[in-house]
Amino acid sequence: MGFTAHGPRGRLIGLTIGFVLLMASMLASILYGLHTFDLNDLWKAYRQFDGSNEHLIVTTARVPRALIAAAVGASLAVAGAVMQVLTRNPLASPSLFGVNSGAVLFIVIGLAAFGSSLTMGGMIWIALIGATVTSVFVYALGTQGGGGFEPIRITLAGASVAAFASSVTSGIILINKDSLDSALFWMVGSVSGRKLEHLTTVFPYMLLGLLLALLLSGSLNVLALGEDNAKGLGQRLRLVRSLSAVSVVLLAGGSVSIAGPIAFVGLIVPHLCRYFVGNDYRWLLPYSALTGAILLVTADVASRFILMPKEVPVGIATALIGVPFLIYVARRRAHA
């Protein structure tokens, strides 16, 4: 496994280093951008708040943005790791369950129905409901029939539903062009313009999804051995798969509802973490959470400088990283 960390001590050291890197990246996210601050400005913004423009930017824009990016990155990465073992597909990501397409479809329907009266908080709830409904439908569709659970059927069901939802979304936007600007702003994937209360609305669901995934980590290790081996070891496959799907919906649905469909984080991060800690999900999931948070926070910081003074949505920045990585993984699997 290359540079795999050996033993619990080495892996704990790796987690500690990852936590330090996450804190450093979040600090950079707060301090750097079109407006640059220093540590003294950050301290005064909370200890000696005076209502100035600088203090408002720090407290209402930069800090919430860093926290949201970290939470979304961690959630998407863990959801991707769970999806890859659940479907036995190394290219799986949260979008496989139709989370992105379902959330976008419901958001566009909400914008077409309510227009400008739809608040950001309302959009979050609609997106979370859409992600949940679509994922449940995909899971039910993929497990119908006498064959039981088959990863290829889940994959095909997810791809079909995602394509259908995207087509309906495009049709609604063409019919109701007034919702186009608002929909595009949300669909591109971004953590800017969000407020701390938006995070607090969905964070309990994301935290529940993370805790559920961690509790299932031992069962996921058994599931990764294959269905026959898992049955032989007494694994309750239906229960494990159902709870894993719930975890993915909570993690990815919460992320998409607050930041839009940010691609490739759930694909890239689990592969990177496997390179260092192997396939033990008891370690892979915590590493994925930390690495996903670091990746998205860092990508968000970088996106501010690509077209300065304008900002590139972080969803575009992750796509620039993710597409070459996807090609690399696909070619590596083909050669294998």
Automatic annotation (TrEMBL):
**A Pfam family assignment:** FecCD
Q: Which InterPro entries match?
A: ABC_BtuC-like, ABC_transptr_permease_BtuC
Q: How does it sit in the membrane?
A: Multi-pass membrane protein
Chief localization class? membrane
The record's subcellular locations are:
Cell membrane
Entry-linked Gene3D superfamilies: ABC transporter involved in vitamin B12 uptake, BtuC
* Chain segments annotated as transmembrane: 12-34, 66-85, 97-116, 122-142, 154-175, 202-224, 245-269, 281-302, 314-330
Per UniProt, which keywords does this protein have? Cell membrane, Membrane, Transmembrane, Transmembrane helix, Transport
**Family note:** Belongs to the binding-protein-dependent transport system permease family. FecCD subfamily.
PANTHER family xref list = FE(3+) DICITRATE TRANSPORT SYSTEM PERMEASE PROTEIN FECC-RELATED, FERRIC ENTEROBACTIN TRANSPORT SYSTEM PERMEASE PROTEIN
Q: Please give the name of this protein.
A: FecCD family ABC transporter permease
